[in-house]
Amino acid sequence: MLNNKNNHISIMAKQSILITGATGSFGVKFIKNILTSEEYNKVVIFSRDELKQSELQTYFNDERLRYFLGDVRDYDRLNEALKGIDIVIHAAALKQVPSAEYNPMEIVKTNIHGAENVIKSSLNNNVKKIIALSTDKAANPANLYGATKLVSDKLFIAANNIAGSRETLFSVVRYGNVAASRGSIIPLFKKINEKNDESFPITDERMTRFWITLDQGVKFVKDCINNMYGGEIFIPKIPSVRIVDIAKAINSNKKLKIVGIRPGEKLHEIMFSIDDAIRTLEFKNHYVLIPTIKFYERPHDFISNPKGEKGIFVDNNFEYSSDKNDVFLSVDEIKNFIDTI
Ligand SMILES: NC(=O)c1ccc[n+]([C@@H]2O[C@H](COP(=O)([O-])OP(=O)(O)OC[C@H]3O[C@@H](n4cnc5c(N)ncnc54)[C@H](OP(=O)(O)O)[C@@H]3O)[C@@H](O)[C@H]2O)c1
């Protein structure tokens, strides 16, 4: 069903959706969320590992789900999976910062060549909307993971020109550390705590990170699907945490052992830098980085969004940085969140 006003497809109409990396932290939460409503009549899971997929099949009992084993590096397989798909959420990625430093070509193949394949097969199959997930590490990247995600962001934004007057729209959602996602600090510290180890390893006592829960990430991505022209990098307004406060929230009696920053890590993260400020719009709950390039077939100034909300340009000296954030979570707030997991 088309919403004639903006020629955008409403998320409320029955659609088919494919999620690359659907067996990961984001993917599982996203699927759980969308299956609670009738908005999708087909939900395709696309990832490599058969065990994770068979575990999902046991967990979800829903006829709308389809399981595709495949690798985003493999264009032909993606192209097959995308037949008849209206919306793609591209969540598949390699994302461990140190591992990327040691295995550079592997992360390039998945995060960059994979992105290119998602773009090409989406265009080939006339997919209507594509949202690619990105990370704060892509802003002024200090590590290869962030650099590959920056390249991926640029590929998705530029793809709107390749689409030309076709209906296919590409946007990016960029956010910070997802609390308690696979391989993140909360599961690590909880394991250390259960093992009764003497101390928590802390890279640097000053370290801060942006913080978003999976539920918030899923909701934000869903909102962006309904609110995109194509070409935006959407960034939610989210709080920061001090890494030492996460340790205190898990066990305030345990010592902290300073182990030093890992290969490629930053002390603080930024969502966008001063260099980006000139093209950044602030909305009530989020920012939008507008494209550096012109879209010849469907020009937009992005100042008002499809929902009719108006954005204003941020100050030229503004940098959205995890250490200078207005909102930090307290130890108690972190503790309350951990208790709900
Ligand atoms: N977690 C965070 O803190 C965070 C923060 C900001 C942004 N993000 C971004 O959010 C997205 C999702 O993250 P996540 O936390 O859900 O990651 P995750 O839990 O590590 O899941 C990654 C998913 O991608 C799949 N995958 C990996 N390589 C693949 C390939 N070559 N082809 C197909 N599937 C592949 C994995 O399954 P198989 O191994 O079975 O293929 C898995 O389903 C990523 O793009 C990440 O960069 C994450």
Descriptive notes:
With 341 residues, the chain is of the alpha/beta class. It has one domain (2-176, 213-236, 273-317): NAD(P)-binding Rossmann-like Domain (Rossmann fold, 3-Layer(aba) Sandwich), CATH 3.40.50. The chain is 35% helix and 23% strand. It contains 11 helices and 19 strands. α3 packs across α5 (104-124). The two termini are 37 Å apart. Mean pLDDT is 93; it is low at 1-11. Bound molecules: NADP nicotinamide-adenine-dinucleotide phosphate (NAP).
List unreliable stretches of 5+ residues: 1-11
Structural classification: alpha/beta
Name of the CATH architecture? 3-Layer(aba) Sandwich
Number of helices, where a helix is a run of at least 4 consecutive DSSP H or I residues = 11
Order of strands, widest sheet: 5-4-3-6-7-8-12-17-16-18
- CATH superfamily grouping: NAD(P)-binding Rossmann-like Domain
Shape: globular
Stated plainly, the CATH topology is called Rossmann fold
Total number of strands: 19
Q: Into which percentage range does the β-strand content fall?
A: 15-25%
**Helix-strand string:** EEEHEHEHEHHEHEEHEEHEEHEEHEEEEH
* N- and C-termini, Cα separation: 37 Å
CATH class division: Alpha Beta
> Biggest sheet, open or closed, and with what strands and sense?
10 strands, mixed
Question: What's the pLDDT, averaged over the residues?
Answer: 93
Share of residues in helices:
25-40%
Taken together, the total number of domains comes to 1
Q: Supply Rg.
A: 20 Å
Bound ligands, each once? NADP nicotinamide-adenine-dinucleotide phosphate
